[in-house]
Amino acid sequence: MVKQIRLAAHFPGVNNTTVWSDPAAGSHIDFESFRHFARTAERGRFDFLFLAEGLRLREQGGQLYDLDVVGRPDTFAVLAALAAVTDRIGLAGTINSTFNEPYEVARQFASLDHLSDGRAAWNVVTSWDAFTGENFRRGGFLPKEQRYGRARSFLDAASVLFDSWRDGGAFAVRDEHFDVEGRFGLPRTPQGRPVIIQAGDSPEGRDFAAAKADAIFSRHAGAEAGKAFYADVKGRLPAHGRAPEDLVILPAATFVLGDSDAEARERAREVRAQQVSPQTAIKLLEHVWNRDLSDLDPDGPLPQDDPVVDGGTIAPGRASVRMYRDPLATAREWRELSRARGLSVRELMIEVTAEQTFVGSPETVATSINDLVQQDAADGFVLVPHITPGGFDEFVDRVVPLLQERGVFRTEYAGTTLREHLGLKPLG
């Protein structure tokens, strides 16, 4: 049976993949940027648009991290405004379960689902670092090992609120994390509740997704790693009384197009060079060495000394710092790669941080996406352009029609809600 491909459009910001310096790059505050992005994705019949959320401006060496967006509007404000200028595309927002309250979040998502006629989605994330928590009343109170416990309780509590209209809005939730009681002021929404998305990759995160989520983001976009992740997460579903079709797996993926594969490869090299400037290369290297490297030549060799592994971190709150769980091993690996290929600091950082997922002509990219989905390496992809807001224009104009011709992607929306777009069963 031929699988239908699911596609989502990610409006980036909290990363270094976007080429801010490109003349085509637009504002992350001006609503026109969000409108253009959303309308393009809807024209391409994408399942949903996705917004990430940063709860604190991140720092490095005591200074604001210069690759992050400063001043992007609140997620709910943007999605509510987009509901008025789109008709079918889903609207997904990242909202934290560590520092918010169930009643507040349930009310906001129920409002969005009503305003959009059933297109809301909630990317449930956790946070455990005290750096982010300092912005909140309970700053840093939650140990890392408890974050998924609170997330489960938070989602369960919100679900009680979403369903409470059957009992006149009355609700009561009492567990180790919450003690709330009252009446929910909104009727049941078109979807019953927002589509639930989750992005954890740890064993706890995978179990959480298998038990609670409708879709899971993954960083495993390649064939081998994708198949392993897909089989693992789908294999966890029966233990929770769920079927494989109850959870959609969507790796994040970047792309670069060209009239030919050779042209696309050349454009990809140019994009990687833009993404990792000399200054950025040093900042990224500091994530592993965990000390100030501003005096290091980005066109020279790696530092001779080892990373600093004791004490705090040069970049509190940076997820990329936590990715390198063994900085000493990472440093050894990078030194070996640098020596073997004669790479400078900047060339190494380009090599290890900025390679695109899909590079080629429209035909090549369409084939690659379809092959991975049909091989059960994914159900689709959350695509991340390197330019906003116009980064999807070429993909929608040149790749989507090829997928439609193959009969693996919709030519029109069949339903009105996001659950229908994703092929999920309606809630009871």
From TrEMBL:
EC primary class: oxidoreductase
Residues where FMN binds: 94, 148, 202
InterPro entries membership: Diverse_substr_monoxygenases, Luciferase-like_dom, Luciferase-like_sf, NTA_MOA
The protein's Enzyme Commission number: 1.14.-.-
SUPFAM superfamilies, alphabetized: Bacterial luciferase-like
Pfam family, one: Bac_luciferase
Bilayer-spanning residue ranges: none
MF terms in GO: monooxygenase activity; oxidoreductase activity, acting on paired donors, with incorporation or reduction of molecular oxygen
Name under which the protein is recorded: NtaA/DmoA family FMN-dependent monooxygenase
UniProt organism field: Actinosynnema pretiosum subsp. pretiosum
